Amino acid sequence: MALAFDEYGRPFIILKEQEQKTRLRGIKAQKANISAEKVIARVLRTSLGPKGMDKMLQSPDGNVTITNDGATILEHMDVDNQITKLMVELSRSQDYEIGDGTTGVVVMAGALLEQAERLLERGIHPIRNAEGYEMASRIAVEHLEHIAQKFDFGPINIELLVQTCMTTLSSKIVNRCKRPLAEISVKAVLSVADLERKDVNLDLIKVEGKVGGKLEDTELVYGITVDKDMSHPQMPKKIEDAKIAILTCPFEPPKPKTKHKVDIDTVEKFQTLRQQEQKYFDDMVQKCNDVGATLVICQWGFDDEANHLLMPRNLPAVRWVGGVELELIAIATGGRIVPRFQELTPEKLGRAGLVREKSFGTTKDKMLYIEHCANSRAVTIFIRGGNKMMIEETKRSIHDALCGQESHSQQFYCLWWWISRDFLLNCCRGRCR
Known about the structure:
Blueprint: E1 2-5, E2 11-14, H1 26-45, E3 55-58, E4 64-67, H2 70-76, H3 82-97, H4 102-121, H5 126-147, H6 159-169, H7 178-192, E5 193-194, E6 199-200, E7 205-211, E8 219-221, E9 223-226, E10 238-247, H8 267-290, E11 295-298, H9 304-310, E12 317-318, H10 323-333, E13 337-338, E14 350-360, E15 365-373, E16 379-385, H11 388-403, H12 406-428
Parallel strand pairs: 7-16, 10-11, 10-13, 11-12
Antiparallel strand pairs: 1-2, 3-4, 5-6, 8-16, 9-15, 10-14, 14-15
Helix pairs in contact: 1-3, 1-4, 2-3, 3-4, 4-12, 5-12, 6-7, 6-11
Protein name: T-complex protein 1 subunit epsilon
GO molecular function: ATP binding; ATP hydrolysis activity; ATP-dependent protein folding chaperone; unfolded protein binding
Subcellular location: Cytoplasm
């Protein structure tokens, strides 16, 4: 490599190895692209099926992930080839549209390209190969529709759905608890599903995990769990028939947003300022009590002095609750998110049959359970595990089980693959026109 200058004095680099570089064209370029995809397919092939092996992935910052989920494996792989990037996008789109089968689509694509390579060596044009695959796809879909069988299910008859989810969980690291996890997944889906419209909004299913306990302790909560506790240790730990005020405004006096400052040089001025802040806070508490709220959930925090004043006024509160959790709480309880205290009315309060604080393990970690809600369509799958890696892998497994498509999609992959292969080979032999 050498540095040179053009007639305008602008520098440019001359690569001495440029003569040794070549550009692949024609069949060589096609084979190179196919070889790159076959490498990715071979990596994921060992993770497919009930006896598939898990992969241990290490990120640049040292975090370790153990999984056999194809989309997760490809997300952590550092790929440079454009064809392998297409495989990553293929797996990502499968995960986005279907939720499962991310490993199968990549393995199937590798197998089909492997057969296409043999056809290219026989002199068949790539466009003819693509047309053959499209015809094989139509034949496979028609055959699947011909042999498909429909089964009825409902809130009581869920055994077939449970078996489908068990098939999904059989290839996961949580297969020893596949039966209870499958039942939890099916009950969660049926709780949020609109069977008349045949629509399922998986956003209403919150998957939460906390380190500690056993995998068998995983439970389905017909409501919302929040990784928070009551703001004051002496507040009640159990509230029945709760009327919840969901606030996104600060539960404290407003702070000046200017560069000016207030100088307090006497005790009387300090007492006046303190009384004014306390009066402002008393007005906010009184507004909550006037509308009948028995619990306040606030997105923002409030200082310890304000927290201490909540106790004598008999108003339990929870602070620093995230925006996504606030939305789920509003959906589950049928309440409205209130941005200003002036807009708080009794009609905007959420209602829950039971709000309780629960402690876990020897570390006394606490979480808030909001159950028996007015609109129980929002549910939570609360996962327990011995470490963080187990929790994360269980979340991925539950996601696949909720989608519940692996057993059917795997049969489709196998059938479509065999029909496609036989159809293309017959085309090569001149048997199909």
